[in-house]
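Hi F.,

I've been meaning to write this up properly since the lab meeting, where we talked about keeping a consistent format for the predictions we share between groups. The idea is simple: the sequence comes first, exactly as it goes in, then the structure tokens exactly as they come out, then a line or two of notes. No screenshots and no reformatting. I'm using this chain as the first example so we have something concrete to point to.
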Amino acid sequence: MTTRKDLAMAAKAWPFEEARKLLERVKRDEAAGKAKPYVLFETGYGPSGLPHIGTFGEVARTSWVRRAFQELSDKPTRLIAFSDDMDGMRKIPENIPNHEMLREHIQKPLTAVPDPFGTHESFAHHNNARLRSFLDGFGFDYEFMSATDAYKSGKFDATLLKALKVYDQIMAIMLPTLGEERRRTYSPFLPISPKSGRVLYVPLKRHDAAAGTITFDDEDGEEITQTVTGGHAKMQWKPDFGMRWAALGIDFEMFGKDHLPNQPLYAKICKALGAEPPINYVYELFLDEVGEKISKTKGNGIAVEQWLTYSAPESLALFMYNKPRTAKRLFFDAIPKEVDDYVAHLDKYQTQNEAERLENPVWHIHAGNPPQEAWPVSFALLLNLVSASSASTPEILWAFIRQYAPRANPKDNPSLDRLVGYAIRYYEDFVKPKKKYRTPTDKERAAMEDLAAAFDQLGNITDNEAVQFQVYEVGKKHQFEPLRDWFKALYEVLFGQDQGPRFGSFAALYGVTNTAKLIREGLAGKFLA
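Output, unedited:
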């Protein structure tokens, strides 16, 4: 008999592929007598700027691998969302206020930089709170960990002292990757100035593994000797990766392609500290509307809050799930497709067998328990309905939806009700400003007049296949070749755009009689004004 675990072992979805690699690691550890009480996943976040969608994507994707692993093994799991908030603020992000106030705090740990928004005890606390608020809102199961807390509480002390003992090994790993000038001043340890509180990028004059201390010149030139423990120093970001993996015992961590050249360094340093590096998964970076990498400090691309202004979190999750190793443009025009693809996957899930469901993105997005709610209309259809009806309130759209799907209502279809509100906002902000209507050619005019007359004969039927058949027949009668030119003409004349959902589905939703009237208004040039 085929069990659920058997199906998971055979599943081809990428989270299961990664989970199987992790399972092999666990089995090797157990065979070698190095079994741990749990499997530890980690995601990293640098709070040098406001959290962006890429940060959410990393936590979501890691959670999906964790959930897939839970189908394969009964071993407990944990997920740490780690914030590197002891990093020095090297530059001021463009998309935050109070730049003048922040300038005097350059190079201080982000938890020692005042919050420019005035709501939290530091800039890092503000950004950490923003991140946690969203992750909590989405329902992620994670443990938040602050680098500042980890360094100051002593959590990293034993590993930092070990790093001091293998200082020469770490330098041998790092120095070949640096330029000649950088080699002369490089140190894997960054002392925190006892006077200014800044993170100092200075060469070490001495290091004493037995005493656990480093000696350096402070900013004013005074020679200082202080311990590397208790938050008096932190490690450079590349050694910090390996140190953190070793100190916490991380089993799995994914990161963006920009880390790929440094991944071998992280792993070598982790091994030098006596630990096995985690399994890594490298994903492609997100691009903004002009093809540039999105950045926290630039503030380009879409913020988490912006996406959720126009769509539910499930569509954002689907964007993250699909092809994580392919670079994708992360901008507002991605939203309608992701919404409708999500609806299609959710609809398909209801008729799939258990093996097929494990391959369906919604199984992963909803931790194995997708909702049962049906969505009788798509986001693309709603956008055209807003356009055709000049709807400014959900009530207007629901009047059309109820005619098309009498059993649908806001109470029983809360997700669809939210989608109605999203569609109105998205249309007003992104669709309406870009509309470019045109007059039809003589051939198109004749065909549209015939279509309006045919719709008059159909009456207000809601069978979208029958309506779509009529649209096809008129297009073929008027010899549109290829036939897509006929649909393109309908959308350009009636909606001011060159594409859209199936026209028959739109007409059935809007009402065939209403659509006939819409066609005649388009032919009369009403929309050109």
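Notes:
The chain has a mean pLDDT of 93.
The longest strand covers residues 39-45.

If this format works for you, I'll send the rest the same way.

G.
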